[in-house]
Amino acid sequence: MIARANRLPTATVHGPRPLPLLALDWRPWETPDTFTVMKVSTASPEGCTAHRIEPDRLDRARSALGEAASLDLAETFRLLSDPGRLRLIAALLAADELCVCDLAEVTGLSATACSHNLRLLRGQRLVRYRRQGRNVYYTLDDEHIRTLLAVALEHVAHG
User: Fold this and answer.
1) Cβ burial, residue 145 (10 Å; 0-12/13-18/19+)
2) Residue 135 counted as domain residue
3) Residue 135: what are its φ and ψ, rounded to 5°?
4) Per-residue b/e over 10-28, b at no fewer than 16 CB within 10 Å?
5) Does 116 score more than 90 pLDDT?
6) What range defines the domain where residue 113 resides?
7) How far is CA 132 from each of CA 110, 129, 145, 146, rounded to the nearest angstrom?
């Protein structure tokens, strides 16, 4: 038996808004007992009415991006989707190397948020660091990151 969301036990966490304790199907932008349904096409390729292209082109299209590469690339773009992280990367692009306190000042992030975001970027090999005494200095990991950001900025400016 599935409990309706409005009957779920609640807990108050730092504020007046109650949070459901068991909310697997809870979506704040929808009514509590609404589920999102995605229609998946089950049509077979033989039933396609569009003009079919050559099999070798289909094979090239199928192998254009493997599963592991697509997951890695999606994670990279997920990390780059945060404006704070983009400001960190842009600052490193402009200044080449900065310590955490300077990056925090330049980007407007707190030192804690800056360190957290840099750790995430480091995990995806977008930035690297070196220690000098008590300071940690960050730089972009390689030229690919510079190229990626330059192409993205060019695309945005192109409109």
Assistant:
1) buried
2) yes
3) -95, 150
4) eeeeeeeeeebeeeebeee
5) yes
6) 78-158
7) 21, 10, 24, 24
pLDDT tens-place string over residues 60-104 = 888 899 999 999 999 999 999 999 999 999 999 999 999 999 999
Task: Supply the CATH number for residue 141's domain.
Answer: 1.10.10.10
Amino acid found at 24: L
Tokens standing for residue 41: 């096409």
Instruction: Give the count of domains, the chain.
Output: 1
Pick from 85, 93, 74, 73: which is nearest to 122 by CA? 85
- CA of residue 33 relative to chain centroid, distance: 29
Is the entire prediction scored with pTM above 0.70?
Answer: no
